[in-house]
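Can anyone check this?
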Amino acid sequence: MKRWANDIGPNLTKLRLRRGLTQEQLAAKLQINGSDMTRQVVANIEARRRRVYEHQIRLLIKVLRCTVDELFSGIPPAMTSNPPLYTKPSRR
């Protein structure tokens, strides 16, 4: 089992695609709003290879015009501060 750096990656991808944004476009919007996040950073967050900090989460919510629940959907509240061990869901 592997500990993931964050659990918002898949939800971030879904929200970004629903808004019709590429990773590069999202990074540009984040930069306009004062972040130093690049396309590579966005890609690493989506792939769960990079930890996301509170100020970055706030900015993602602002830029994507989403709620905390949308960004963290499916993650039990008690587990958001410490990333859980991830097991791949079984395919049906």
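Reply from J.R.: I decoded it. The chain has five helices and two strands.
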